[in-house]
Amino acid sequence: MIGYTGDGREVMFELTELLSCFGPTRGDSVDWDAVEAVYGRRLPSDYQRFVAAFGSGSIEQALYVQAPATTTAELAGNVVSTLPAGMLASGGADSWRDPAQAGLYRLEDMLLWGWTEQDSLCWITFDENPDCWPVAVYSRFHAAWSVYPFGMAEFLSRLLRDDFDEWPISDVGLRTVSQPRFLHDKDEEAGWELQERPWE
Predict the structure, then answer these.
(1) N or C: which end of the chain has fewer CB within 10 A?
(2) What are the beta bridge partners of residue 135?
């Protein structure tokens, strides 16, 4: 049973204490009414707060958080989206680490909000209230989905505190980072254009 996780105010406060921005860009201003029109639904409150505080970008170049699309044309880019058609067509992608969850959720109800080099991080959009959407992670290491009964901000907060009985993503590098940093996409792109290595 997935419980109501609230609007993310408290957990976002904790997340801003755990995670620091080290580029000049701090968050994005987003037309959330336009976002709702694109997706046909509101996106979770904690995600909206994350975007306002941090924006789209990466945590230690290991975990990437997508921006929301504000027009349908943007859906072809690197934004929150449904799972790729190839993944939906693959029978192997509908595998669940907990056999009891097999058949409970549909891949078509997934919205991809983040990723690592080996994993997909999604919401399961089965509830009318987006603040009740759990996080699902498809780990290439396990070749299966795992479901976590809380929102995106709490997932990230637990990840940065190493507060999981079993590490939920394939890359274990974040476990050794004592002061994790977030770099906005704009700042990372600007660094590469200047032939700098922004993470070094």
Answers:
(1) N
(2) 123, 148
C-alpha 12/C-alpha 106 separation (Å) is 28
The domain limits of the chain are 9-193
The two three-digit tokens of residue 146, written as one number: 């795992």
DSSP per residue, 13-74 = HHHHHH-EE-SS-------HHHHHHHHTSPPPHHHHHHHHHT-SEEETTTEEEPBPPSSGGG
pLDDT tens digits for the chain (200 residues)? 344 455 667 888 899 999 999 889 999 999 999 999 999 999 999 999 999 999 999 999 999 999 999 999 999 889 999 998 888 877 668 889 998 888 899 999 999 999 999 999 999 999 999 999 999 999 888 889 999 999 999 999 999 999 999 999 998 989 989 999 999 999 988 765 566 777 66
Structure tokens at 169: 């993503």
Q: Dig out the tokens for 177 from the structure.
A: 């980072």
**Fold of the domain spanning 9-193:** SMI1/KNR4-like (3.40.1580)
Q: Report the 10 Å Cβ neighbour count for 170.
A: 15
Tokens 């993310």, residue? 8
